[in-house]
Amino acid sequence: MLIVMKNGASEAQTEAVVQVIKGLGFQAHPMAGTSRTAIGITGNQSPIDPSRFETLPGVSEVIRVSKPYKLVTRDFRPEKTVVRVGDATIGGEDLAIIAGPCAVESRAQALAIAQTVQKSGARFFRGGARNPRTSPYAFQGLGEEGLLILAEIRETYGLKIVTEALDEPGVDLVERYGDIIQIGARSMQNFTLLKRVGKSSLPVLLKRGPAATLDEWLLAAEYVMSEGNYQVVLCERGIRTFIQHARNTLDLAAIPAVVAYNKLSNEAAKIGQRLEGFGDEFAAVLSRQVDERA
Fold it and tell me: Using CA atoms, how far apart are residues 16 and 59, in angstroms rounded to an integer?
């Protein structure tokens, strides 16, 4: 359910509605827009009688939300999300570029790449300190040593750090050293992890799982937002298909669909593509196609 406050409703009136929601045992999610405040309600297992809220001071209307996801929809907040990381933004007027290696393999390697990323004009450096691998014998990252290297990159080059957390202790470390918590494709439906990052003050970059539907992807974002963290960036990284010429198939059709369904950063959907596994020429063509369709 969604409660829309009147234009000009006071903070006290909004807080009074929030307290009524909490008093009923539900969770309240107030979100201020440019002209109004909307309050999402989650935690109810059955329909709520709208008359409980319709007569409260400052309430304009009460809307039933029929979609399985409540907080990521444009009903909750029509304005697009702009994620702010210090003096950089994702989803704002400036094009946000996130660049860097899949894994931080050494200090020399990471700093050399970071220098190139900074010279290109990008504001975000992505590098993995802990990397999930299909094989248990493959290199899985430097751990906290890698995070210390990423922190040095932020200090030296002024880049914002995007790095993956695989579990709850990993989130604690990323909060200490990073700026954005990356949830990898393999972890998209790790619901315990999603709930933990939902309690974090850092933005979350949520990758789409290799076989996930759009509803499953958006519901993963809903897990994060239902815990109070509304700074979610969606990353379409490709899905698994029958093709053999590339690791993943970049689902361009998902981008306009996601933009239409939800209010999370459409800029992120445009620039958050994972082109790993493609040749440089192929990646450049895909980048142009993504930019034209977003």
Answer: 10
| Residues 6+ positions from 178 with CB-CB distance below 8 Å | 147, 150, 161, 162, 163, 202
Residue 230 CA to residue 248 CA, distance in Å, equals 28
- Cβ atoms of 221 and 69 within 8 Å: the answer is yes
Per-residue b or e along 132-163, where b marks 16 or more CB atoms closer than 10 Å to that residue's CB: eeeeeeeebbbeeebbbbbeebbeeeebbbbb
Nearest to 202 by CA among 238, 236, 165, 152: 165
Tokens of 114: 């970071």
Gap between the Cα atoms of 271 and 159, Å rounded: 17
Dist CA 145 CA 143 (whole Å) = 5
Is 2-63 in CATH node 3.30.70.1140?
yes
CATH code reported for the domain at 83-293:
3.20.20.70
229-242 pLDDT, tens digit per residue, is: 999 999 988 888 88
Q: Are strands 160-164 and 2-5 parallel, antiparallel or unpaired?
A: unpaired
CA-wise closest residue to 162 among 228, 213, 226, 235: 235
Q: Kindly tell me if the per-residue pLDDT of 252 is higher than 90.
A: no
- Indicate the pTM of the whole model: 0.81
What are the extents of the domains in the chain?
Answer: 2-63, 83-293
Residue 16 CB coordination number (10 Å) = 15
